[in-house]
Amino acid sequence: MSRAYNFSAGPATLPEPVLRQAQSEMLEWRDAGASIVEISHRGPEFLEVATSAERALRALLSIPDDYAVLFTQGGATTQQALIPLNFAQPGQPADYVVTGHWGKTALKQAGPYVATHVAASSEADGYRNIPARSTWQFAADAAYVHITANETIHGVEFREIPDVGDVPLVADFSSSIASEPLDIGKFGVIYAGAQKNLGPVGISVTIVRRDLLERAGQPRADIFDYRSQLKGESMLNTPPTWNWYMLGLTVQWMLDEGGVAEFAQRNARKSALLYSAIDESGGFYRNEVDPAVRSRMNVPFFLKDEALDKPFLSEAKDAGLIALKGHRVIGGMRASIYNAMPEAGVQALADFMRDFMRRHG
Ligand SMILES: *Cc1c(COP(=O)(O)O)cnc(C)c1O
Fold first, then answer.
1. Which of 209, 353, 197, 194 is CA-nearest to residue 281?
2. Which of 102, 108, 109, 158 to mutate to test the pocket of ligand 1 (most atoms within 8 A of CB)?
3. 259-360, which class in CATH?
């Protein structure tokens, strides 16, 4: 058996020690007499898993006490619909800064509930940059400003937190959470689907400044209500126990590896390796994103000659490098290099790219 280096954008590669631990606990979790996914979410064993996952996440991300953490089903897209329901009055304006596919999705999901207003967009430019903060135009009385911290498909990442004054900043961190130290206190809400950097798909993390939970929001069922979810300790209904358990293992692994400061350094080195391979290829490979806002997590690139796309993918696979096909929205290639991707994997890809160019250039 050999595991390839897996550059999938999500669901994405998981740390091997996490998979091994899950494997070893598959038939029986500690002395529970059953696996963690076969027992009640309200029993002491799972409650221990759930609370230690939250404790580890709070430690990893330095989440201040005045922020609540919710673990819910439904993925990031669901949070994009729940945010206007929870934090804005019906028809109230909400500002969206659209810097790629996921910003556009967030705008669409909020559409039925609020007066969405595009404060800035780089769509006309093909999402290759982030509009300068000075050009953003906010709606009067906006409930919040929404940004996508890292655009997973277009490969565009905010490199600094924009100042939006007193209006709560809401950020989709699905593909860059825990990739570097972050001042959570600058945000009203941070949300992330787990399947990029936190574990397997099926659970989302939402970090909410507690005072925002007191906002009235809109009529909504309990299950869509962040306040009720918090009161119910994210267990209003059966939570995705397997995913919660795996998230806990993944977060603990990140702490054991040295935490977000360590990953920030690794991620800087990993992405620099790939961008150099692209930029030094004399146009054989190209990445079109403004270098100032290139993503450290997702590196999209195109080959000069599209006819080489297929051979590139099949030769990469033979070399043990999988899931490099770009998203169908933009085509080309994409290497997703989240925390669980080892530096050796990125080095192997950069070496392969140079070798492929020598043979086909
Ligand atoms: C993957 C992704 C989403 C969508 O996540 P789902 O869990 O599939 O709903 C949203 N935003 C970003 C930035 C993503 O990377």
1. 353
2. 102
3. alpha beta
